[in-house]
Amino acid sequence: MAIRENFSYTDMDEWLNEKRVTEIECLVPDLTGVARGKILPRGKFTQERGMRIPEAVLGMTVTGNSPTDDPAYDRAISLTDRDMILKADPGTITMVPWATDPTAQVIHDCYFADGRLVDFAPRSVLRKVLKLYEDKGWKPVVAPELEFYLTAKISDPDLPLRAPVGRSGRAETSRQVYSIDAVNEFDPLFEDIYDYCDLMGLDVDTLIHEIGAGQMEINFLHGEPLGLADKVFFFKRTLREAALKHNMYATFMAKPMAGEPGSAMHIHQSIVDAKSGWNIFSNEDGSPSALFKHYIGGLQRYMPCALAIVAPYVNSYRRLVRHTAAPINIQWGVDNRTVGFRVPESGIQDRRVENRIIGSDANPYLALAVTLACGYLGMTEGLDPTEITHGSAYEMKYELPQGLPEALGLLRKEEKLRTVLGERFIDVYAAIKDLEHQEFMTVISPWEREHLLLHV
């Protein structure tokens, strides 16, 4: 569901006038999920609805660098540094709650000069997958659950992160999973977050304390994928701003603290028939349908090849290790949190599968696109899942790539994913992640200095 349903450009102009907006943040989610774009005065936004920024903005690493000497990347992104044309999506217009002056923010789609969507932009990739479902008469319904850590403000990146100080004047020193009092330690922050989310129409549901010290989880109400991706994109930005206001950091790193669990973006997903609204994962007698099992089969078959998209950084693979509240394989089970794909206990219309592999550091548009793409391939190819797992999948073997280079190798080779996600998207994305890994390899870690300096 969009933030503002069926909003036209005329509706957006009237809304901006009603709110007496003076500035507008024109946002484009890049491949890392970072908000790029421009800030325009209200009058300029009205005149320049075809704003332009360089195409290369979508082809940068998280450090702001671009690949060189990569033929596939060079074929995808113009060597002349040409512009993209940005067009606002009126349904995403909302206020910037932390701004001093009345300021709005709106997400833009990226177009080539000939009017085609830029196919490697994250929103375009998700739209491409959703079109496949539309052509089948299916509508995906998703509900993300986003974990994150609150930490003390530490400006030196060489120092380890630690839990922030709450209202009591003390930081958490033990795990407070599901503790209400531990959440209440940060009441002033969460009051701001809920106020901001209400003002922006983000439809957040429940807030809980997770396993780690200072680790929280926010759940979103279920809805259509593009609107939910927009809300997660906005929420990440909103949470970071609110945390800074309260003199702490909020981080969506997959594994920000040694010795603590990592942070995931669990995505619940079901598919309904577009005409009848019936959940196609269920038969009329209430039993699981063949399509439901094929969907899980698709997740099992293709998610290992797609892992580089949902575990996008070197740090992401520190989360996916045994006995750390994260999956290490592609097993599935009913109400089993040790597997990669969990089927919650539910009613006939609520039957769904939860993908627990995705990290909170993933771009929400790409995370939704790829998990839906895997399920789509499973249903259209009639793939069967493995036998259900009843015990702990943590004791079973690794079935996921254990590092970014291995994951990128699988992603590049899988032709079916190249077809459903887009050839140029895969080429651009893989080139960017290769460069990020090269940049990481130039840094020497404290572990290397501690254990190798005088011992080898």
Descriptive overview:
It is a single chain. Helix 6 packs antiparallel against helix 7. With 456 residues, the chain is of the alpha+beta class. The protein is globular. Strand 8 and strand 9 form a beta hairpin. 47% of the residues are buried. The mean pLDDT is 92. Strands 7, 8, 9, 10, 11, 12, 13 and 14 form an eight-stranded mixed β-sheet that branches. Strands 1, 2, 3, 4, 5 and 6 form a six-stranded mixed β-sheet that branches.
Characteristics of this structure?
alpha+beta; Ubiquitin-like (UB roll); Creatine Kinase, Chain A, domain 2; 2 domains; 8-stranded mixed β-sheet; 6-stranded mixed β-sheet; 14 strands; Gln_synth_gly_rich_site; magnesium; Gln_synt_N_sf; ATP-binding; Glutamine synthetase
Write the layout of secondary structure elements.
Blueprint: H1 9-18, E1 23-29, E2 35-41, H2 42-47, E3 51-54, H3 71-76, E4 83-88, E5 94-95, E6 103-111, H4 122-136, E7 138-152, H5 180-184, H6 187-200, E8 204-209, E9 215-220, H7 225-245, E10 248-251, E11 265-273, H8 290-310, H9 316-319, E12 332-334, E13 341-343, E14 353-355, H10 364-381, H11 404-413, H12 415-421, H13 423-440, H14 446-452
Parallel strand pairs: 1-6, 12-13
Antiparallel strand pairs: 1-2, 3-4, 4-6, 5-6, 7-9, 7-10, 7-11, 8-9, 11-14, 13-14
Cofactor: Mg(2+)
Protein name: Glutamine synthetase
Domain GS catalytic: 122-456
